[in-house]
Structure formats: structure tokens, C-alpha cells
Amino acid sequence: QVHLVESGGGSVQAGGSLRLSCAASGYSYRGYCIGWFRQAPGNLREVVATIYTGDGSTYYSDSVKGRFTLSLSQDNAKTTLNLQMNSLKPEDTAMYYCAAERRYCSAYFRANPSDFGYWGQGTQVTVSS
Questions:
Q1: How far, in Å, CA of 42 to CA of 69, rounded?
Q2: What is the pLDDT of residues 69-115, one digit of tens each?
Q3: Dihedral angle sign, alpha carbons of residues 58, 52, 43, 16
Q4: Are residues 94 and 40 in contact, defined by beta-carbon separation less than 8 angstroms?
Q5: What pLDDT shows up at residue 33?
């Protein structure tokens, strides 16, 4: 059973930085699409960034490209997916979720977060102007 636990959210002023972490356990390292999604009140859940553990390929949404950076590390049975968020904007305010599924990170898959089978509980990010 895959288990995901997020941490690192908080409140910051525009232009500031935050680092989110997702501790993932209970799955094999290779062959998973794992990433971050976010959902603001009244909006649909949207992809932020993903990484495919099979080949390390990454994807960033246009709204965060150049500002956010993914990194993936493994220590024994636990994998940690970090999201470094720099130059934060008020429009980045949302609940951020870590998600994983054992499949390739295709464009269709990224656009359909409901197809991800494993989710964390979420961590709130609030950016004030």
C-alpha cells in the first residue's frame, strides 16, 4: 500500500520561497508517476509538476516553470519528493497534494488527476501580496 505524507506548507509573502516535501513509502521505486497537484477554492485540481521514476523525466506546468523545482531522493524503503518553490505569487495560493500512480506520466494522465490512485492529505500554501 502506497502511503504519502506531505509537509512544508505555510504562509509567505509574494516573492518568498517554500519547500514542500512528500514522504512516500510502500511502493517500488521504478515505474511510478509521482508529483504535486494543487487546488484553490472554487477551482479544479491542477497539475504542478511530475516526475516519472522510470527515467527521471520531469514536467512543470507553464505557471510554475522556472520558479519551482522537483527533486527526488531515496533512502532505503522511503522516497522523498521535494518541491522547491521560489518567487511565489499570490496565485500560487492553494492546497498542495502529493500523488502517485504506477504508470508513465503522460500528458493525458497529468490532465486527469482523478486517475492517480494514491494521494497525501495535502498541505496549505498561502502567498500574500
A1: 26
A2: 999 988 877 889 999 999 999 999 999 999 999 999 999 888 899 99
A3: negative
A4: yes
A5: 94
- 85 close to 91: Cβ distance less than 8 angstroms: no
Exposure b/e, 87-105, CB count within 10 A at least 16 = b? ebeeebbbbbbbbbbbeeb
Helix (H, G, I), strand (E, B) or coil at 111: helix
Q: How many CB atoms lie within 10 A of CB 77?
A: 11
Contact criterion met (CB below 8 Å) for 118 and 99: yes
Share of the chain above pLDDT 90, in %: 81
At residue 114, the 3 state secondary structure works out as helix
Closest CA to 125 of 89, 80, 81: 89
Give whole-number Cα distances, 86 to 4, 20, 22, 58, 92, in Å. Answer: 23, 11, 17, 18, 11
Residue given cell 492517480 in the structure block: 116
Distances from the Cα of 102 to the Cα of 8, 81, 87, 115, angstroms: 25, 15, 32, 11
The predicted model gives 18-24 an average pLDDT of 96
